[in-house]
Amino acid sequence: MKSFLNNIFGESRVSEESTSEHNLMVATAALLLEIANIDDEFSEEEQREIVEVLKDRFNVTSDEVEEILKATQEDIDQRIDMYYFTNQINVHFSSPEKMQIIESVWRVIYADKHLDGHEDYLVHRFAKLLRLDHSQLIEAKLRVKKQMAE
Predict the structure, then answer these.
(1) Cα(51)–Cα(54) distance, rounded to whole angstroms?
(2) Confidence (pTM)
């Protein structure tokens, strides 16, 4: 893991803290990639939204995001389910931070202006795995829909 981070960030920036931050970025990216791919239509709008979310949330460049997304996809391919990633988020993120993540998931869902049944199922599953209740999920959805309508 550290050698991967050394390649992306340079050896001087790799520390325990950046490794933890990297793990959280990978976990967040995994949820966003899964929601984007669930309907078998990974649109340019969804990809742009994922890049923007990761750049804003983790203060990284577009190039760093691209590297993270490649590594994340490889990691996803090796996992059976999303529990590993959601557990990383649960351990390190507060409830308000998890709400930000679920809002990011909603942004990716609505990037193509359409909520597919598979996306709806998966976002509910993510909320449950992130220990968010249904009202929090709906609150995040409504907030994102309002922001996107403006």
Answers:
(1) 5
(2) 0.80
